[in-house]
Give the backbone structure.
Amino acid sequence: MVGFVTVSSRSPLAVVITVLALGAGCGGGRADFVGSRAKDVCDAEWPVCSRVAGCILGQESYTEGRLPGKGQFIVQLKEASSVRVRFFLEDVVAAGEETVITFHEEGCRAKIREAVNGRTALDSAEKSGEFSREAELTGVGDHLVEFESDMQARYVLKVEVEPLRNR
């Protein structure tokens, strides 16, 4: 026998059911930021520019870690593209003095250095839920991307690539 419970729309149970139903499909900040990407722990050894990077990040992956600190990864491009590095910040303790992201062309033949004041980076994260910087890279192949920050926080990092021909 199947039983049904009649719930008045004003009852506390109805409110709980409604909240659970609305929340079931919602991700929230971090989950929305990550989406369906797979986590890469960035503990491999990929050669790039006479150095070694821990991972190759693309449209399907993300990584996470703690600041202060620094990191490096590879972005592979099939054509000239805009590469955006996006940080979702959590458990921020201090803004720090500066956050720097350096984008290298393939073979490290050139670089674009994006530096931002720690307070500015944190303000951006508080307003829009993330901090990001981007650069237009013209070479095809493996591009080293480095970051360094004295901010005290946990981060989730992902990369977005948009071919320049689409702009």
